[in-house]
Amino acid sequence: MTTAAVNGATASAVLVLEDGRVFGGRAYGAVGETFGEAVFATGMTGYQETLTDPSYHRQVVVMTAPHIGNTGVNDEDPESRRIWVAGYVVRDPARVPSNWRSVRSLDEELAAQGVVGISGVDTRALTRHLRERGAMRAGIFSGAALSDTETLLTRVRSAPVMTGADLAAEVATTEPYVVPAIGRKRFTVAAVDLGIKGMTPQRMAERGIEVHVLPATASLDEVYASSPDGVFFSNGPGDPAAADHPVDLMGGVLERGTPLFGICFGNQILGRALGFGTFKLKYGHRGINQPVKDLATGRVEVTAHNHGFAVDAPLEGATETPHGRVEVSHVCLNDDVVEGLRLLDRPAFSVQYHPEAAAGPHDAAYLFDRFAALMEGQRA
Ligand SMILES: NC(=O)CC[C@H](N)C(=O)O
Q1: Cα–Cα distance between 230 and 186 in angstroms, integer?
Q2: Which of 149, 260, 303, 348 could form a disulfide with 343 if both were Cys (CB 3.0 to 4.6 A apart)?
Q3: Which among 55, 138, 15, 113 is positioned nearest to 358, based on CA atoms?
């Protein structure tokens, strides 16, 4: 086996961070090399949903939970058609997966999909490093890709950065498709796919909504082709500051006054469409137990998050925008980051977190009901 030197010891795979820190481990999943932004995710469960969330495109995901792969891989839990993470970092992979739904091991699945990973990493030290220094570029190298640290570091430092990356169209559907309502059809929604997770249209379908999922590049005419009762903007990868087309598209929807709902990237797009800026968080929110406060009710929800950027808006009071007044509706109790926006003069709102909860707690499922109520209200 090819080995590389890390702190005088040998390793069959290395993780090289752009600031020069190197972690040794063993090849996990596919053997080779990969580059991306190193970020940590704290969910104790739901690794399949994490791996297949298109918002993780171009990111090297570090799992803080020490045992990964225990329940293997099943064919029901993926949130999209493939694994999107650019690389995967774990401490202690399951040797023998065990679950009634499991059809193969995670190691096999990563290898089959060509996802380069590394195991045996001191993920606590790595997470503390990323928390202190911030998310940064990284490379994982194993097999023939191993080389001296200087060479690998030069390559990591020439990989693309996340800031300014316009990635939605790389992961979104290229063809429109329809997710039928379950039971009686009550509403039609046009959903702009910026990297949508499969559970999102599912949660709408469960509420009698027929969802017309459209490519990220859809025009305003295409959005309105199905005569929708509401328009939805999904989660997705990349920097919202680079997502000019979705911002323009949303501006058109706001002008028409159609009920509007956005999740995660969709919240950042709403922020921009209203004239707010967005900024990069030092290390982001990625996990399934983040406390969020609904400022209108004072109620605290435990929620799923996956975001590295945030909207820059005042937490208190209403702000005048070209589309009427807006207020921050939700805030993260860990760090006061904006977690939701609500327009006061238009039927439009969005959240930075994940009410579809795949994986994660279902505290925020009421937001899909709120969207249905907005559409009901417009009809009356
Ligand atoms: N899950 C998402 O929609 C993520 C949005 C954006 N790419 C961010 O990292 O903040």
Answers
A1: 11
A2: 348
A3: 55
CATH architecture of 4-157: 3-Layer(bba) Sandwich (3.50)
Nearest CA to ligand 1 atom 3: 235
CA of 277 to the centre of ligand 1 (A): 15
Model confidence pTM above 0.90: yes
Q: Is 297 exposed, middle or buried (0-12, 13-18, 19+ CB in 10 A)?
A: exposed
Query: For the segment 181-228, what is each residue's pLDDT rounded down to a tens digit?
Result: 999 999 999 999 999 999 999 999 999 999 999 999 999 999 999 999
Residue 4 Cα to ligand 1 midpoint, Å, equals 34
User: CATH 3.40.50.880 residue ranges in the chain?
Assistant: 168-379
Q: Give the domain 168-379 fold.
A: Rossmann fold (3.40.50)
What gap in Å lies between CA 266 and CA 61, rounded to an integer? 22
Residues 6 or more apart whose CB falls under 8 angstroms from that of 117 comprise 27, 28, 29, 30, 87, 88, 89, 90, 110, 140
Query: What is the atom index within ligand 1 of the atom nearest the CA of 195?
Result: 3
Residues 6+ apart with CB under 8 A from 378: 229, 258, 259, 347
Amino acid at 171: V
Known binding positions? 55, 236, 238, 265, 268, 306, 308-309
Residues of each domain in the chain carrying CATH 3.50.30.20: 4-157
Taking CA atoms only, the protein residue closest to ligand 1 atom 4 is: 307
Q: Which atom of ligand 1 is nearest to the CA of 354?
A: 1
The ligand 1 atom at the shortest distance from the C-alpha of residue 306 is: 1
